[in-house]
Amino acid sequence: MQKITIDQQHAPSLLPDGHSWQLAWNDEFDGTELDRAKWFPRLHIMQQRFRTFCEDAFFLDGESNLHLTTYEKDGHFYSTQLQTGENFLDRPGNPYSSALSWPIAQFSEPKFLHKYGYYEVRCKLQKQPGWWSAFWMQSPIIGANMDTATTGVELDIMENFTRDGLVSHNLHWGGYGKDHKHVGSGNIPTLGSLDDFHYYGMDWSPNGYVFYIDGKESWRSDIPVSHCEQFIILSTECQGYRRGDKPAPELTKDAEKDAFVIDFVRVFDRS
Known about the structure:
The chain is an all-beta fold. It contains one helix and 22 strands.
């Protein structure tokens, strides 16, 4: 891997050897306010308003870090997901039908869509049990038909469901119903202290995907390859609400002191 410095104020990127790279998009999370020209919150799952997704469980610390956090209110825990675009599952569907449908609500203009290149996050994982974090991508029309080349693939660059530094890389395609398919790396340990920042990245090319942890290849796959533009998501989620209406027993008020801390998100193209 090669170290690429974008300026003197921020940590370098770790990029695959054998290519020249050009910065295409980034957020260094400078200042104390989120750049709303780059991100907006996700509030829906499967066209339904998700109870515990909120717009305010985060802050910028003034030292170039974004903190995604949780908070408890009236016995429920809330967290934030931030994204640079949206798909039809993020919008309210037909209010007169329980079936998924093309949304009634108007789509928002995407902040950033891209295909191919290197996608990188430098972050500290959360430590408390009961909630998880992820750095991933979706397309605006994922699952609209079975041609994944044109409708896209869910690209889970980093998912952390535990508190011990185990992460996974996953691909999902064919929508989220009976035709859904999935392949993944299984759990991979993040070496070193969880008090430190770590790098998670994905090199996406027309031939497939190569995933990296701290500059070392951790998994690769070429099934299936998306050839459409997709958007980036930084997400956290409190466990217990996908199939129930109360937080997971592991989720306690200690989680309010915890955070998924992001130093930067960067996208590079081969130049």
